[in-house]
Design goal:
Shape: globular
Oligomer: single chain
Number of helices: 14
Helix content: 25-40%
Order of helices and strands: HHHEHEHHEHEHEHEEHHHEEHEEH
Largest sheet: 7 strands, mixed
Length: 349
């Protein structure tokens, strides 16, 4: 029996539907560099999901999706406002700043990973957009679901986007776990993107059953500037010669609502796991569980016990002599049996 890995949803494999799609797309020959039918159909495919016209560029990783989106929206002298522990700040090796040619990331405090409009206003007020000595406020980047596994409601996003508009900022959304957020909120994808005021979305799929497939999705008037984004895309090595293999994954991901079905399972299993762990004496949730990420503080004895079980998990760090902090993440294929086994291991000396 395989030992479940709760360290990250990146640790999971591929959904059978994705494997089948890759096999089917491998038959025969098609035009390269995005000239194949699957890639050419992505704008319409995603347009149906988002209920509007969109421009879609497939890419291989979430990091490059974020970096190219921000390079597209921010000038080299621009300031990009984001949560202080956002993935683009702490986990992407300065890629957004590199691809944007020097744009500066400005980290903002947040409530369990969520930025408040007041924090954005205060940060923007410290810069004079007309003073050549200052970075020019250019972009707000938010993460949905957040780095803490929490959620912005569509109204929250709308309020942030309106504040950004008032400040002259474009809006980017890092949607590495976008499917989990849509499934948890039970809302239309449009309601927490372009209808709320988002210009560009990094649409994640790799964490939710794909091999290596993400998409940059451009909404509204920004679509007129997509030829510039395509130059960034090519220069970053993301115009894959066999692009059909990325597009086949994205096509199968959306087919028959697979993306939401898989995300719902991950979310449900996370809630079961969090509920079970909270029953263990001394275990405390650090953030509300909105999607498939759980952050916990626990007695060091349980922390060490988990390390010995063989279950994969992400030990953030011992937080003191008596406690440790961990992140646990469920996946599209996490089963109820997987949860039961981990709960048993965590509660048994």
């Amino acid at each position: 029996m395989h030992q479940p890995h709760f360290g990250s949803d990146n640790a999971s494999g591929m959904a059978p539907e994705i494997i089948d799609a890759l096999a089917r797309s491998s038959a025969g020959g098609v035009d390269s560099y995005g000239g194949d039918g699957l890639t050419l159909a992505l704008d319409e495919r995603f347009g149906e999901i988002f209920e509007t016209d969109v421009s879609v560029l497939p890419v291989g990783t979430g990091t490059i999706a974020n970096a190219l989106s921000l390079a597209f929206l921010a000038p080299p002298w621009g300031a990009i406002f984001c949560y202080e522990a956002a993935h683009i700040v702490v986990d992407e090796a300065n890629a957004p700043e590199f691809f944007a040619g020097g744009a500066k990331l400005i980290g903002l405090e947040g409530d369990h990973g969520r930025i408040h409009p007041d924090a954005l206003r205060r940060a923007a007020a410290t810069m004079d957009a007309e003073d050549v000595h200052h970075p020019r406020p250019s972009v707000l980047s938010i993460t949905q679901a957040s780095e803490c596994g929490t959620l912005y409601s569509p109204n929250d996003i709308g309020a942030l986007c309106q504040t950004a508009r008032d400040l002259g900022l474009a809006v980017h959304m890092d949607g590495a776990r976008f499917a989990n957020a849509v499934a948890a909120l039970e809302c239309h994808p449009a309601d927490m993107t372009w209808r709320a005021g988002v210009d560009v979305l990094s649409f994640g799929a790799t964490k939710n059953g794909c091999l290596a497939a993400e998409a940059i999705i451009v909404f509204g008037d920004r679509r007129k500037e997509v030829p510039v984004l395509r130059r960034h895309h090519k220069r970053a090595g993301q115009l894959f010669s066999k692009m059909r293999f990325l597009s086949a994954q994205l096509d199968a991901y959306l087919e028959s609502g697979n993306w939401l079905r898989w995300a719902r399972n991950a979310n449900v299993q996370a809630r079961r796991l969090a509920h079970g762990l909270e029953k263990i004496e001394g275990v405390r949730l650090l953030h509300p569980v909105g999607v498939n990420e759980i952050f916990l503080e626990m007695p060091l004895a349980i922390f060490e016990r988990l390390k010995r079980t063989g279950f994969g998990f992400y030990p953030i760090q011992p937080t003191g002599q008596d406690t440790g902090t961990v992140r646990l993440v469920t996946s599209f294929n996490t089963s109820s049996d997987d949860i039961d086994r981990l709960l048993l291991a965590a509660s048994t000396d």
